[in-house]
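Example record used in the benchmark description.
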Amino acid sequence: MELNDTTINILKNYATINPNIVINEGSMLKTISVARNVLSSTEVDEQFPQTFGIYDLNEFLGVLSLVDQPRLKFEKDYVVVGDSTGRSSVKYFFSDPEMLTSPGKDINMPNAEVKFTLDTDTLSKVKRAAAALGHEEISIRPTTGAIVLSVLDSKDATSNAFSIEVEGNYPEDVDFNFILNVSNLKVVNEDFEVEISSKLISHFTSKQSTTEYYIALEKSSTYGA
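Model output (structure tokens):
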């Protein structure tokens, strides 16, 4: 088996959510953060022949980078990662999936009151603003005919803030202020349709792939208050 660049990029992204992963038999990849406040799933081109656990996903990705055009040969307790010539290889042992943090049941997304589009350019600007200002929160509020995303410190009314408007839909005459922690916004660089529920959960669905994320909102969020 060979892993294409898209799958490797997904695994790199998943390593930022959880340092370990359980890969199930088939073509579906899933991960969940240790705090269980970020969950993601996607379907890849490859078909994995068995279920196995990787304790250190970054280490495994480093092993893949050791060889040219890595080829994977699966055994019961390990995988052999070889190069295109067959001259070099790495034997990498699996971890017990029961010892790792993995998703359980699929999330049943509640009714979403707020919906908007988040493109790659806007996502990049928001992340850069958070890094530049040193803030950890994104405020999502209604504005005239749109939705405004603000990078700020919600506990300091005088803090410097970056704001950008996006197209979206929400109920008329309902005020809301959803707070998303920047550290939980660990999504791939794609365009997303975002849905937010007053139950304090958000759903990010990629417009370019099958990748989706469920991200919990902060308890300081408000809706209809």
